[in-house]
C-alpha cells in the first residue's frame, strides 16, 4: 500500500482575523469645557431637571387675570331696613291658539253653515271651465297657484286643446309655453299631457266618476279628485284645501292635524243637503274673510257661531291727515 499523505492542518479563521480597531479617543480642542481661572467646572444638569431660570416666572405680553372678588353687600343705613329684592318678571303668556278649543256640536255645525250661506248665496268655483276635462285640467294647474292666474292662461290653452286628444297631440313643450306664467309650469305641462294620454288609453277619453280612478291620473291628488266629483258630477264630497283646512280648525267645524282627518270629520258632521255647497262656502270664506295671518272676524256673518277664542275686533278708524 502506498504511504498515506500527511494530513493538512487548518487554522481557525477567528484566530486569523484581525482584531477590531478601537475608536481613537476624541481629542477636544484646547480650552473646550475648561474652567476659567479661579472657577471649578460643574457637571451639566441632567435633562428635565428644573433650573433656577426655568423656575422663574416668564414675562409675557398678556395680563394675568385677577382673582374674582366677592360682591359687596350694602348695609342699610342706620335706622332703615333693607328692601327686599324685586322678583324676576314672569314669562309672557303664550298667544291664543289658532284653533278652537273644541269641536262644534251638530246643532252648532248647522247654525255655522247657515250663517255662511247668507254670505255666499250663489257660491261656485272661480275656475273657468266648459267641460269635465277642462275642469280637471284647470284644477291640476291651480295647485300652488291662484285661480286668477290659472284663468289667465286657460283660455288660450283650451282654445288650442279642448279635448284629451288635442292636449296629447300638443305635447309638453307647447303646453308649457301656454302656461309658463304660473308656478311649476314645467311639471304641470307634463302632467296635463300625460293624464290626457291616460284618459285615451284607459277611459276612452272620458273623465272617470270615482275617486280611485281619478287619483291614478298624473298630477291628480285627493283634493283635485274631490273637486271634480263635486263640481262636475254633483257628488257630495268635501275637498279640503289650505283655506278649508285652516277655517275648519279655527272655527271648530272639524279639527284635525291632517287633511284626511279634517275631511273625514267634515263628511261625517255636515248635513247631507249642505255637503256639496259647503265646499264653496268654506273656500270663499277662508280666501277672503278668514285669512291666514289675521282673520277679519268683524265682517264675518258666522262670527257669533264660530268657536275661535281670539276673534279680531273691528279696527279703529285712522285719523284724517292734517292739511298741509
UniProtKB/TrEMBL annotation:
The record, for Pfam families, names: HHH, HhH-GPD
The note describing how and how many cofactors are bound reads: Binds 1 [4Fe-4S] cluster.
Source species, domain of life? Bacteria
Q: Which residues bind [4Fe-4S] cluster?
A: 290, 297, 300, 306
**Bias-annotated ranges (Basic residues):** 1-11
Q: Which cofactors are named for this entry?
A: [4Fe-4S] cluster
Q: Which InterPro entries match?
A: DNA_glycosylase, Endonuclease-III-like_CS2, HhH-GPD_domain, HhH_base_excis_C, HhH_motif, Nth
Mind telling me which residue stretches traverse the membrane in this protein?
none
What does the record give as the reaction this protein catalyses? 2'-deoxyribonucleotide-(2'-deoxyribose 5'-phosphate)-2'-deoxyribonucleotide-DNA = a 3'-end 2'-deoxyribonucleotide-(2,3-dehydro-2,3-deoxyribose 5'-phosphate)-DNA + a 5'-end 5'-phospho-2'-deoxyribonucleoside-DNA + H(+)
- SMART domains from the UniProt entry: ENDO3c (SM00478)
For biological process, the GO terms are: base-excision repair, AP site formation
- Which residue intervals are annotated with compositional bias (Low complexity) in the record? 42-53, 87-97
Q: Per the UniProt record, which EC number(s) apply here?
A: 4.2.99.18
MF (Gene Ontology)? 4 iron, 4 sulfur cluster binding; class I DNA-(apurinic or apyrimidinic site) endonuclease activity; DNA binding; DNA N-glycosylase activity; metal ion binding
HhH-GPD domain sequence ranges: 141-288
Keyword tags? 4Fe-4S, DNA damage, DNA repair, DNA-binding, Endonuclease, Glycosidase, Hydrolase, Iron, Iron-sulfur, Lyase, Metal-binding, Nuclease
Q: Where is this region: Disordered?
A: 1-102
What functional role does this protein have?
DNA repair enzyme that has both DNA N-glycosylase activity and AP-lyase activity. The DNA N-glycosylase activity releases various damaged pyrimidines from DNA by cleaving the N-glycosidic bond, leaving an AP (apurinic/apyrimidinic) site. The AP-lyase activity cleaves the phosphodiester bond 3' to the AP site by a beta-elimination, leaving a 3'-terminal unsaturated sugar and a product with a terminal 5'-phosphate.
What the record says about family reads: Belongs to the Nth/MutY family.
Protein name in UniProt:
Endonuclease III
Gene that encodes the chain: nth
Amino acid at each position: 500500500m502506498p504511504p498515506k499523505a500527511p494530513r493538512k492542518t487548518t487554522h481557525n479563521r477567528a484566530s486569523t482575523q484581525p482584531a477590531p480597531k478601537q475608536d481613537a479617543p476624541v481629542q477636544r480642542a484646547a480650552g473646550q469645557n475648561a474652567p476659567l481661572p479661579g472657577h471649578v467646572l460643574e457637571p451639566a444638569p441632567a435633562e428635565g431637571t428644573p433650573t433656577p431660570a426655568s423656575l422663574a416666572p416668564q414675562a409675557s405680553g398678556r395680563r394675568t387675570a385677577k382673582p374674582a372678588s366677592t360682591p359687596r353687600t350694602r348695609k342699610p343705613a342706620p335706622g332703615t331696613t333693607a328692601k327686599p329684592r324685586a322678583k324676576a318678571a314672569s314669562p309672557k303668556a303664550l298667544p291664543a291658539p289658532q284653533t278652537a278649543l273644541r269641536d262644534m256640536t251638530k246643532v252648532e255645525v248647522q247654525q255655522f253653515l247657515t250663517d255662511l250661506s247668507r254670505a255666499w248665496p250663489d257660491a261656485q268655483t272661480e275656475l273657468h271651465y266648459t267641460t269635465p276635462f277642462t275642469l280637471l285640467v284647470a284644477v291640476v294647474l291651480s295647485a300652488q297657484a291662484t285661480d286668477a292666474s290659472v284663468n289667465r292662461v286657460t283660455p288660450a290653452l283650451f282654445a288650442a286643446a279642448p279635448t284629451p286628444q288635442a292636449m296629447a297631440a300638443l305635447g309638453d313643450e307647447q303646453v308649457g309655453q301656454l302656461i309658463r306664467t304660473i308656478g311649476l309650469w314645467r311639471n304641470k305641462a307634463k302632467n296635463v299631457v300625460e293624464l290626457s294620454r291616460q284618459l285615451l288609453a284607459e277611459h276612452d277619453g272620458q273623465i272617470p266618476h270615482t275617486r280611485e280612478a281619478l287619483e291614478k291620473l298624473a298630477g291628480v291628488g285627493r283634493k283635485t279628485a274631490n273637486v271634480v266629483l263635486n263640481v262636475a258630477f254633483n257628488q257630495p264630497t268635501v275637498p279640503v284645501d289650505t283655506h278649508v283646512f285652516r277655517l275648519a280648525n279655527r272655527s271648530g267645524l272639524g279639527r284635525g292635524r291632517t287633511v284626511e282627518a279634517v275631511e273625514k270629520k267634515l263628511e261625517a258632521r255636515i248635513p247631507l243637503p249642505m255637503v256639496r255647497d259647503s265646499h264653496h262656502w268654506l273656500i270663499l270664506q277662508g280666501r277672503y274673510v278668514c285669512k291666514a295671518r289675521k282673520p277679519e272676524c268683524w265682517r264675518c256673518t258666522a262670527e257669533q257661531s264660530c268657536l275661535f277664542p281670539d276673534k279680531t275686533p273691528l279696527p279703529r278708524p285712522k285719523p284724517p291727515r292734517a292739511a298741509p
